[in-house]
Amino acid sequence: MNWKTHTRRESYRPRAVQHVHDAREREPDSDRGEGPRQQGVVGQVATLIPEKGYGFLFAEGRKYFFHRSDFIRAADFDALTVGLYVTFEPVERTAKGPRAKHLELA
User: Fold this and answer.
1) Which long-range contacts (CB under 8 A, 24 or more apart) does 34-41 make?
2) What Rg value do the Cα atoms of the chain yield, rounded?
3) What number is the average pLDDT over the span 57-80?
4) pLDDT value at 63 more than 50
5) What are phi and psi of 87, to 5 degrees?
6) Dihedrals phi, psi of 69, to nearest 5 degrees
7) In the chain, what are the domains?
8) Is residue 40 within 8 Å of residue 73, measured between CB atoms?
9) Whole-model pTM over 0.90
10) Pairwise CA distance, residues 40 & 23, whole Å
């Protein structure tokens, strides 16, 4: 069946395309590179465990967890050392405490 000629539902798309489209609708525009991202918080790397791919940083008197997958560019994690400053978006409500998302080197 050709998805372009399907007549039962006008919104028919192959499953993979539909899932990607649905996921993009749920994401805020800033996550797709549309417009400048507003980085609100600057923090300093306090602990880094590169072999496990995570660490902790301090900002605004709080300790934030981060994972290598939270970096916008993977090369930023590889260049990271204790004491460097990063910008990030804080996520307050996680099961294990505050977490930093969308990190970039400052």
Assistant:
1) 37/72, 37/102, 39/87, 39/88, 39/89, 39/102, 39/104, 40/89, 40/90, 41/87, 41/88, 41/89, 41/90, 41/100
2) 19
3) 94
4) yes
5) -105, 150
6) -75, -10
7) 41-105 (2.40.50.140)
8) no
9) no
10) 25
Q: Match 């991202």 to its residue by tokens.
A: 37
Q: Residue 35 is encoded by which pair of tokens?
A: 């417009």
From the number of C-beta atoms within 10 Å of its C-beta (0-12, 13-18, 19+), residue 12 rates as: middle
In one letter, which amino acid is 99? Answer: R
pLDDT at residue number 92: 83
Sequential DSSP letters for the chain: --TTS--S-TT---HHHHHHHHHHHHS-GGGGT-S-----EEEEEEEEETTTTEEEEEETTEEEEEEGGGBSSHHHHHT--TT-EEEEEEE---TTS-EEEEEEE-
Q: Which two tokens stand for residue 30?
A: 């800033």
Length reported for the chain: 106
